[in-house]
Specification:
Layout lengths: L5 H9 L6 H14 L6 H13 L3 H8 L9 H12 L4 H6 L7 H9 L16
Helix pairs in contact: 2-3, 3-4, 3-5, 4-5
């Protein structure tokens, strides 16, 4: 599965925005269902991100539950942080400026402090 390639996965990830998130949810739902357990982390994480981006935090958690618990996956951890802190998806669009689309920027975006909201006490996937 090509999405297991980190550069390919990151290109797909960085191309997501609130305008196309619904299409990504449909695509990654299908891919997550079809993916064997050993390669499910990437499509499930992309589904989680697309779900969060489209405003469906509960669906994002369901997607992240598909990430194997014994294999931590960085993108899943980033998505979990966005959901747990109550980060609004518009912040992604603002930070993911088309002229500066680099994974380092996206990772820094999720690593920056956010005002914590009430946490459901749920651990990040893979932990």
């Amino acid at each position: 599965m090509a999405v297991e390639s980190i550069p390919t996965r990151d290109r797909l990830w960085l191309d997501m925005n609130r305008g196309n998130a619904g299409s990504h949810v449909a695509l990654w739902t299908d891919m997550t269902k079809r993916a064997p357990d050993d390669v499910r982390a990437a499509p499930a994480s992309l589904l989680g991100f697309a779900s969060w981006l489209s405003g469906h935090g509960a669906l994002a958690w369901c997607a992240l539950d598909q990430v194997p618990k014994d294999k931590p996956y960085a993108l899943a951890t980033l998505v979990a942080a966005a959901v747990q802190t109550g980060m609004h998806p518009r912040e992604w669009d603002e930070a993911n400026n088309p002229t500066e689309r680099r994974v380092e920027n996206a990772t820094t975006f999720f690593a920056r402090p956010s005002t914590p909201k009430a946490s459901p006490g749920r651990p990040a996937p893979g932990f």
